[in-house]
Amino acid sequence: MTAQRRFVRRALLAATASVAALTLAACGSSGGDGKASSGTATETATGSHNAADVSFSKEMIQHHRQAVEMAGLAAGHASSAQVKSLATKIKGAQDPEIKTMSGWLTSWGEQVPEDMSGMGHDMSSAAPGMMSDAHMGELEKMSGTEFDKMFLTMMVEHHEGAVAMAKTEKADGEYDPATKLAANVITAQSAEIAQMNKMLGKG
Predict the structure, then answer these.
(1) How many CB atoms sit inside 10 A of residue 7's CB?
(2) What mean pLDDT is predicted for residues 176-190?
(3) Can you name the residues that pair with 30 across neighbouring β-strands?
(4) 6 has pLDDT over 80
(5) Stretch 70-94: mean pLDDT, rounded?
(6) Are 182 and 170 in contact (CB under 8 A)?
(7) How many C-beta neighbours within 10 Å does residue 84 have?
(8) Where are the alpha helices (DSSP H) in the chain?
(9) Which of 26, 38, 105, 184 is the most exposed place for a label (fewest CB within 10 A)?
(10) Cα–Cα dist 117/18, whole Å
């Protein structure tokens, strides 16, 4: 009888350990908001969406990629510490948004746009405010105060395009996280436009 009780006890302990392991695995795989903790393209989109959400995500991914590419030039070309700081801020904000939107598209069964940044492809007609390949090449050749001025001028136009796209998403989109991201883009980039115009002496 004692041996039987020991067997039952061991079986219960084993079962409890298995449940604990499964619980820990589940907790480790997602953040507090139920999304993948890595914030990568594995993030799952839940809720209804429409064609406007898909277009916004695809176009804004490419738009953000070009902004990140432009921002990446500042470290080695800019002379102004203010410009370098702004570029770091832009990259820090837009890189995670690219991953988030890529996750949505994957969840919806849509193709994530191929990364064409830095590959010599002219994407100026892809979305509002996108720079041409010629403009990107010109910026890359600049340095010092000339780079600062051109970077700020181009980024103002680029941001204005992003704000226009975000306003369209807010009006036409259905997927709540996408319309919220659009609202954040409008707020953040409008503030940066004002900051950059001030740096250009226009504020």
Answers:
(1) 10
(2) 98
(3) 36
(4) no
(5) 97
(6) yes
(7) 18
(8) 2-28, 51-77, 81-107, 133-141, 144-172, 176-199
(9) 26
(10) 47
Q: Over 70: is that where the pLDDT of 50 sits?
A: yes
* pTM exceeds cut of 0.90: no
Q: How far apart are CA 196 and CA 15, in angstroms?
A: 61
How many C-beta atoms lie closer than 10 Å to residue 3's C-beta?
7
What DSSP state is assigned to residue 127? S
Q: How far apart are CA 3 and CA 5, in angstroms?
A: 5
Please check whether residue 103 is in contact with residue 40, taking contact to mean a CB–CB distance below 8 angstroms. Answer: yes
Q: Residue length, the chain? A: 203
User: Using CA atoms, how far apart are residues 84 and 148, in angstroms rounded to an integer?
Assistant: 9
Which CATH architecture fits 51-199? Up-down Bundle (1.20)
Instruction: Output Rg (C-alpha) for the chain, integer angstroms.
Output: 23
Q: Could you say which DSSP state residue 47 is in? A: S
Q: Which amino acid is at 34?
A: G
